[in-house]
Amino acid sequence: MSKQTIIRYLQSIVAIPMLAVAMPLTGIQSIPDMAPSIANSVEVADSVITPQEKEDLKKKADAIDTFLTKRGSVLAGYGAKFVEEAEKNDIDWRLLVSISGRETTFGRNMCKNPKAPNNPFGWGSCKIGFKSIDEAIEKVSASLGGNSEGTARHYTGKTTLQILRKYNSVIPNYPKEVERLMNMIKVEEVVK
Predict the structure, then answer these.
(1) Around Cβ 8, how many Cβ atoms within 10 Å?
(2) 136-147 pLDDT, tens per residue?
(3) Are 81 and 96 in contact (CB under 8 A)?
(4) Which residue of 37, 87, 120, 142 has the fewest C-beta atoms within 10 A of its own C-beta?
(5) Using N-to-C axis directions, what is the helix angle for 95-104 and 79-89, rounded to 10°?
(6) Domains in the chain, start-ordered, CATH in brackets?
(7) Distance from C-alpha of 140 to C-alpha of 170, rounded to nearest angstrom
(8) For the packed helices 79-89 and 133-144, what is the interaxial angle rounded to 10 degrees?
(9) For residue range 67-110, what is the model confidence (pLDDT) as tens digits?
């Protein structure tokens, strides 16, 4: 079971008691001091990360930043954001970086459409823009992870290869090209 699935499960368990506290039945007095304890249990569930996991995430982020810096990418420095969003959305931590490499040479040739700024992923055929690179990473990661309402039907429950086939179904070698880039991003001892 993925970390994201566990977190969603825990959040659903907490939601029901919170609704009961927030909307008491008629004639039954609510218990106001329960709400803070329920809220605290959600924070604990979301923040449980071992020192080893934290170190692994940092290694991944550093590997991305080193990889992008060597290629003169404008995305260098976003390693932690790429890793954070990949973890949230249960996708491979190298996927989005590699898509940016295939689509826009790691952001160096970002979408030129003035109506689609901050799009280093060629998302929406360069017709969709974002307020910032951070927002682009967040939204595209959520979409590829099946966590965006508009694209969930395309990406939910897919493997990396299936995601890539859906992302660009026109170029037959597209998945192999992106996977080749993914394999170039290395960390000495990365937990997958």
Answers:
(1) 12
(2) 999 999 999 999
(3) no
(4) 37
(5) 120
(6) 3-46 (no CATH), 51-184 (1.10.530.10)
(7) 19
(8) 30
(9) 999 999 999 999 999 999 999 999 999 999 999 999 999 999 99
